[in-house]
Amino acid sequence: MPFVPILMPQLGESIAEATVMHLLVQPGDTVQADQEVFEVETNKAVMGVTTSCGGTIASLAVGEGETVAVGTVMGLIEATQEEVERSGAEVVAEGATSAPAPQAAAAAEAKPADDGAHFRTVGEFREGASNIGSSPAPAGSGRDLPVPLGVRGAHYLSPRIRARMDELGMTEADLAFIVGTGEGGRITIDDFEKFLAYTDMWPSRKASPMRKSVAGSMQRTWRRPIAGAGRPILMEPILLHRRNHERRPGLTLYFLRALALALAEAPECAGYMVGGRILTPRRIDLGVAVQVKDGVLVPVMRNVDRFTLDELIDEYNKVVGQARDRRLDDAYKGGGIATVTNFGGFGLTYGTPMPLPSESLILGVGAVQKVPVWSDEVQCFLPVSQAQMVASFDHRVVDGGDIGRLMQRIAWFLEHPEVL
């Protein structure tokens, strides 16, 4: 009987590999066409690998915890000739470890349809170019290592060192705390190898695909001049509105909606610089940061300025739930122009959130606190509920005055939640 391969599919434009999380079948099991047989983790989400035809699992070529490249044969299905002809599946020899993957190749070559969000094109191109070909980082991050710090460092790295860094998946940021012994403070290959040997003595764990994705995004973000601004927000109107609302919308949704209305009036505050041009968003698609295991996912809600708070509740709850399960629908992936992150849920009163490489603006919200505020009416301090609102932005695109006016407008909307 013919053997049909189970191939690691192309799960996204910028996905080159995935890690096997769970085996859902074993050799000898009977499977149907399109049945999920592996659960894999990419740097963006947890997804399923399915069969191309029905039959019996003849063998599995990968195990849990293994990282698998796109197009790899993950297992073989023993199928009847009739099933192969019905499904159109390709056949390989028993024991094959590689096979043509027309479906994966077609997905890799295909371009996403233009849905009007030109920011998705700019942002996802940058994400994909930076992620493809990445490899695991070496053991040890360098944090708290007793390596002497100095003002000099890796001003020049030889081709030999760069080749070793590429081999290990390292970046220049990983060498920032090494003081070179070469001329002018240059890091030599001996310095580099001694450092690697030293880090081998420290406890470590393999960075997950999610962690590596977050690290890569933050490194690319930091190449830009990111500035920050903050101001307190009176929370009493929001808290009262939420208490009186039968569905009790999430606090983050209030800020998401207020940001959308403010950006609809001043979209240039979420512009994106490309060369000598500043691109202005054509629609208000906003992300919401959701904490997941070992990282953060940012599902994107579309046209947030066009729907009321009440109309957004169901969709907001849906995308947040999907993000926490790491099973986002494609409709909520990528293309955002700005993001809201509520770090106040972790008890933090202030923070410096970093925008995604494909965005120029992120709005952070701190924990609600009771603080004394002077009242001219009664001539004394009164306790009020406040939260710190922080905006981090690309200073090449906007200045402090622009962000100040944007935050004033956001504050007005939040103080009048009935208009949201």
Blueprint (SSEs and pairs):
Layout: E1 3-7, E2 17-23, E3 30-31, E4 36-41, E5 46-50, E6 55-60, E7 67-69, E8 73-78, H1 81-87, H2 102-109, H3 118-131, H4 159-168, H5 189-199, H6 209-221, E9 226-234, H7 236-244, H8 251-265, E10 272-274, E11 277-279, E12 286-288, E13 290-292, E14 295-297, E15 300-301, H9 309-325, E16 338-342, E17 361-365, E18 369-375, E19 380-394, H10 400-415
Helix pairs in contact: 8-10
Structure overview:
- The chain is α+β, with helices and mostly antiparallel strands.
- It is built from ten helices and 19 strands.
- The strands form five sheets. Strands 9, 12, 15, 16, 17, 18 and 19 form a seven-stranded mixed sheet that branches. A four-stranded antiparallel sheet has the order 1-8-6-3, with no helix packed on it.
Low-confidence stretches: 99-154
Span between N and C termini? 63 Å
Query: Could you tell me the mean pLDDT?
Result: 83
Report the total helices. Answer: 10
Determine Rg (CA atoms, Å). 25 Å
Shape: globular
Question: Which range does the strand content fall in?
Answer: 15-25%
Major sheet: size, sense and barrel closure? 7 strands, mixed
Key phrases:
420 residues; alpha+beta; 7-stranded mixed beta sheet; 4-stranded antiparallel beta sheet; 10 helices; 19 strands; globular
